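Input set for joint prediction.
Command: fold jointly, output tokens.
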Amino acid sequence: MNAGLATATSGRVLRQVRTDHRTIGLIIVVPCVLLGLLAWIYNGTPVFDAIGPALLGVFPMIVMFIVTSVATLRERQSGTLERLLTTPMGKGDFMLGYAVAFGALAVVQALVATGFAVWVCDLDVAGPLWLLIVVAVFDAVLGTALGLLASGFARTEFQAVQFMPAFVLPQFLLCGLLIPRDQLPTVLEWISNLLPLSYAVDAMKEIARNPDPVTAVLSDLGIIAAFIAAALAVGSLTLSRRSA
Amino acid sequence: MMNNSGPAVAVSGLQVIRGKRRVIPGLDLEIPSGQVVGLLGPSGSGKSTLMRCIVGVQIIEAGSVTVLGHPAGAPVLRDEVGYVTQSPSVYADLTVRDNVAYFGRAVGLRGAELREAVDRTLEEVDLVSHADQLVQDLSGGQESRVSLAAALVGRPTLLVLDEPTVGLDPVLRRDLWDLFRQLAGRGHSLVVSSHVMDEATRCDRLVLLREGQVLADVTPEELLAQTGAADADAAFLALIDAETARAGASSTPSDRSAS
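tokens >
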């Protein structure tokens, strides 16, 4: 792997996003609108304080999953990926470039969404705010890594978009947002232990209720990082230099 | 640029299957260094597939493809071989300059060297005045020139160009062919496929493909002399007709014995 090539790729991806103002708007504004809606629905109850942080972790993952899987599929279809792989650009440089570019976008998204939740919607968390942002960025990079992986199995943009409900909704249902994970039927609890979003939500819930959550959150982040590495590694296998 | 005393490309016993069809049933070919070699043939004759084999992105069934002394697609070749696909493969949502610069970075150019290479390339493909426009706002011909620039920027030893002049006006086509000739003069090797037969006369050598096989591997002068035709178009038709007649003649006796 070569840092210069990965940096060149992330710079290029960010330049592409910069020309697409509507996508930037959607990435930044949609999570705020959804959080605002939720705060309004649960106005006057303690529910928003309990699930608000978890959603701060879920939104970046979903948004980055969709953006990345469509962007990578476009690279495959336009022939730019095949062309890049005939140059010294390696699969790892390519994947890392995407992960870094969307990770940077995720930092902006997490800062705005967290700021909005805390100062506009009065979200109250026991733990430190900066940790919320760190977890949100990890979740966004996780979404990017899973999106890169999913795009390897999509032949059309329709399929790529359908992978969102297929990959993400089961994780959403089992991640402990609807009912705590230890109250799920045993088999479902096992399954939820195998899904990365569960650890993202665990970390966010820990920050919501624990004034000193750093140790617990670090172990969750370690697991999320392992999922990211695994998804990038398996995803890079779907990028082949040669085709029939 | 890589020093190489042997041929730019050596293909032996190449077989390729795409889908269920044997697109290349067995092909031997040598492409000399420092020349512009035209790859001609009707659509479906295997031109693009052969080019994909040379750049090493095609899964092959049998045979070998050696490029600049290394197996096609080998890591040492990746900044030595430039490839332009038939449909432009560049980023529509980037400016012309950003596209060319990115592909320049991909082959390791940085800083002042990169800037100079990008400026030089934009001039070569006549896109200086469009440098800061997004590719999606360009015409088809301009877009294919961006795609060509993305391969030229790294000054590869071997350039593989699949129909680079489709949709371009005559002035631009002439300028590009002048550029190809200049590059060959400086020791670069070029493989250029084309439908346009009048471009054939600007090549050093012509390889005529039909159904994945080499029908002729000659200089333009030899082609005209062999067929007695007045231009490349007529010469090509004459060759195809002769080949069809030969194939028909060899199959006739067995047809008779069967009946």
